[in-house]
């Protein structure tokens, strides 16, 4: 038992010193059923590890010679008996030869109790080449009859399949062409590979799945793939993002009087570009939440186009009904709203309250470009915009943390 204790300590030391964060480790145990005596070999897998015996990284097998205690070891690629040896990464298929030595005929169990740090999509099999039997070590132990006169090697092999590789493709403009692509090790097919959505509805399934296969026609949403090998199963979760656009207009009012301000909001999904047509000849681009008033009574159809960088778009419309104003004036304003007037190329901004430290004005053209900005130091301020062409402009006035936007027309 002293030998077994030292083997475990050496395994832990080797694990901590020579393994990277991507290291996977398999401890294979050989136990005599009659006596309960155990021996084990440690296999570790890491990028850049050489499968030949390297004394700085590996441990050569030291046989205890204690009666009734079985011996188990792995074979390095240069055929050295090892109690600990590294075999490269599980990103490729691995096959490791095991050897054993028993001094009493009987039944022995071979198991792999420590597989938590092996990728759950890697299938771990023990091959008994003498009997032509494969056992999934994730599902339990394998029992074999061993004899003292048996050859030490050539019967048992550990097979570790390459971990599943998965890639996803987002759903496009129609939201029906997302994809989850799976590449499974061809040496060990899954019994089944099933895709389910977030509501546990089966979307698709493959039986005896190996090589590359795909689940197609997916909309935006959460999915998970269930891999099954015999009684063993594991799950991977995925999210498919959609590039489709859904446009919707939210208007603060749809029935207004002439000059009454309306706040519009582009309530859009997956959009980063906005184009507005307000039905009166006013076009605004690049602004998600414009404000606007109408100068003539009538019905106006407001159209919003929303686009994104993936070439997807959607349109939305709403109708604004404008009636004649019951009170004459440029704007039907609340008492605390600023007044904005245009005379030729001059703008007059008149605040209803004293200016605060954040008071400022900004003038933008209808494609969203800022053409003028300035702090406001007086309650009434006049600005000349002689260098700007004729047309409509949006004037945003901020004071005391409140922002108001008015539309004006500049002309000679």
Give the helix/strand class. mainly beta
Radius of gyration: 37 Å
Q: Describe the global form.
A: elongated
Classify the helix fraction into a percent range: under 10%
What's the overall average pLDDT, rounded? 87
By DSSP (H or I, 4+ residues per run), the number of helices equals 1
Described by strand count, sense and barrel closure, the largest sheet is: 11 strands, mixed
Could you walk me through the main structural features you see in this protein, from its secondary elements to its overall organization?
This protein is mainly beta. The protein folds into 4 domains: 2-160, no CATH class; 165-240, Macroglobulin (MG2) domain (Immunoglobulin-like, Sandwich), CATH 2.60.40; 249-323, Sandwich (Immunoglobulin-like), CATH 2.60.40; 339-410, Immunoglobulin-like (Sandwich). It has one helix spanning 2-18, and strands at 24-32, 38-45, 59-60, 71-75, 81-86, 94-101, 106-114, 124-128, 133-136, 142-146, 156-160, 165-169, 178-184, 190-197, 202-209, 211-218, 221-229, 232-240, 249-251, 255-257, 262-266, 273-277, 283-285, 291-292, 298-307, 313-323, 339-343, 346-350, 360-365, 370-375, 380-384, 391-399, 402-410. Strand 25 (298-307) and strand 26 form a beta hairpin.
Describe this structure in a few short sentences.
The protein has 412 residues and is mainly β. Helix content is 4%, strand content 50%. The strands form seven sheets. Strands 1, 2, 3, 4, 5, 6, 7, 8, 9, 10 and 11 form an eleven-stranded mixed beta sheet that branches. Strands 20-26-25-22-23 form a five-stranded mixed beta sheet, with no helix packed on it.
